[in-house]
Protein 1
Amino acid sequence: MSRERKKRKVNKQFLFFVEGETEKVFFDTLWQEYRLTSAKTIKILKNSGTDWVEKSQRMIKNNSRVQPNAKTTVFIVFDKNNDTDSQIKAMIQKSKRLKIGGSKCEICFSNESFELWLLAYFEKITPGFKTQKQLNLALSKYLGETYVKADSVQMQRIIKENRTLEAIENSENISEFSLDHQSTNVGSILKEILSELKSPTK
């Protein structure tokens, strides 16, 4: 009988509030890969309005199972999509003031979409823009089949073999927040979290 894989625990706690199903599948798959029990992914209900910070705040207050404390970092994950620059900047400023139970809040942002981060698992990313269609086609090429958003089997294939560290390196050139060119800070956030862990046991 094979030994049960040990779960990874760290002193800090991480809550990831995500607006899309693809992001939910990605982070859940990643936490499973690293057996990271101190990280939790929570799907933001898509209702009226575009303020993801306020939605996350309401969900924390209304969810008895989510109790942030001084060791908790809340990450609000969203894409540019149809949000205006002013809406995004307003959410970032609001996130800096968001403290619940002593926790701190950070924005995890991709311009134009989360698929930009997924593509970093396969190639080095430059600031030049790719449309959503181009991102999907590129992922399809690497996967050898049509890329499907939020497909858990494809996500496992993307993440496998500890390629997350390579993706972090491939996205370093676009890790600074920008509305003017292609950018995502997913890698820099994961780098900080995973630095507390050893590589997962094969």
Protein 2
Amino acid sequence: MVGDAGLDVGAGMKGGAVRVTGSALHRAGAGMTGGLLTIGGDAGDFTGGTAASGAMAGQAGGIIVVSGRVGDRAGDRMRRGLLVALTGTGAHAGARMSGGTIVTAELGAEPGTLMKRGTLVAGRHGDLGPTFVPAGRYELPFLRLLARHIATTVPVAAGLIPERALRWRGDMAALGKGEILVAAG
């Protein structure tokens, strides 16, 4: 698609590929289970999140790549898949996540609110909620594998994966098996 896309572009995708050269409004790739959605500009709130108010699951597979920023609550109720936001995210990225991976240059405020499982990988982060606990500095083999995978599927994002990361576990107010990995200098 040449130009900008409206609401729900790629929502519910099961396979194939959709490429938007411009920006997209809210709920891009919401509830998708497969395929590749590429957005050349920014994407709105709930990108890779829930498809509608009251929906029980967000993205459950596939890959979403946004060249700009994604809005608030990107990856809300995400279950599986990969969401890459090259520039950054709004507040509450990965809220209520139960699986999957979000990779970005910068996480907005309060990422991972009520997250049960899943991984957020970033170069920098906004304010973390009080229910995330520091777990140390790591060189995780998972990061090397993720970097290799991203280099083959989303080459422009390969530089976003750090070799060493500071790890926070949480959200301890939920199941507490999620993690936020932030580049460690």
Protein 3
Amino acid sequence: MHRRRTTTTATTTTTTSAPTTVAAVLGVLFAVPVLAGCGGDGLTPGTAAVLDGRRIPVDAVEARVAALRQAPGGVSADARWEAEGPARRAVTELVLDAVVARAVADRGPVVADAEVAAARAEEERRLGGAGRLARALAEQGVPPEGIDDRLGRELGIRRLAATAGADADTPAGDAAVRRILAATAAALHLRVNPRYGTWDPDRAALAPAARSRPTG
């Protein structure tokens, strides 16, 4: 998990490297819209992942990928599910939304909407406008509607590091956050549909499965 700012050229969630930071921590934590009730803790059809008995639907993953394909600078329209790069990246982001939200909720204080808005205004000022920010983040796999989530997760990851008495931009802070996220994911009994890969707690990201081709 590298620790650069959102708008650097490094990606936060890709198919080849661990995310820099993790999920949106906005308003009421762990109220992630894509999570739905689950009749059990198993991976039912149409489920991408399950956390704490709540599922992330495949529909949410497909919607995230579709939004990215339409974003300027995003993945190309002919990106194929067989390669699963965009899909696996989307699942990683959605899982991290829930994991980081719970981690911050457990440790506090929450990241307020006003903090996210201020961070967005600063990034737009630094890059020269909202369009340039959107383009920079699309190149990192973030659709326009995910910008606040990304900025919120950067604030959240720094807050998690601070609760451990560390700076997120240092190796010690990075290691501390990894430990927090691994423990939180375990507490949530995270399970991921193998069509998208396997969860790597050390990287806080999905790794390609040995057989990654979707079965349906």
Protein 4
Amino acid sequence: MNEKTITLVTGGNRGMGLEIVRELAKAGQTIILGSRNLSKGQEAVEKLADEGIQADVVELDVNNPESVVKAAKIIEDKYGYLTSLINNAGAVFDFRQKPSEINLDDVRKDFEVNYFGLISVTENMVPLLKKSSNAKIINVSSMMGSKTEALNPESEVYNAVAVGYQSSKAAANMYTVQLAKEFKRENLPITVNAIDPGIVATEFGGATPEQVSAMGGKPVDFGVARTVELATDFDNKDTATFSNTHGKVAW
């Protein structure tokens, strides 16, 4: 690619998002760190600067349509286009709730972030991606959204129960497939793929990294490995795939 690679990472101020920003910046990409809270995003950028890594920051709350529209306008005015969109922002509110007693408000919160927020960001960034000669959308999903693996007793997610979160990820997977098919029909050079990071030792879900690690959670660099691999391989034209570091993940 002759043009500069410009990548937006949502939820980029901590955890896997911050590691994705770090590694892609090291790979030479121009990174825009999307953060729901601008001051926390600025703190993350300053932390990276102390490591000798440069990144830009934009306030982007996936649950706030005005924030999403404003972020897209800022990016357009400053850069003119996007090469890659990494939808990393995510949340879980219903962990370990029984399906027969689930709190519907928590389910709605899961969908607001993991599904509706993802669609909102994507729709607003697609016009910028269309201005690139070779673009990518990478949705950080989860094997927990795979009905195949939820029924597989050998799967690491077989005993996981978070119906709202899992359903929102399953819905996001379908959006990934349908968006990829739309772009393929229209011969647009934009691939759309989903990534399963696995169980990663971060603050996700309210636990501490130490707690998740004790339960078998993998290091953050392991969790982002497949995302970084795909985000840096512009010869890869695969679309509508779901994968992790081990290979293909069943939808």
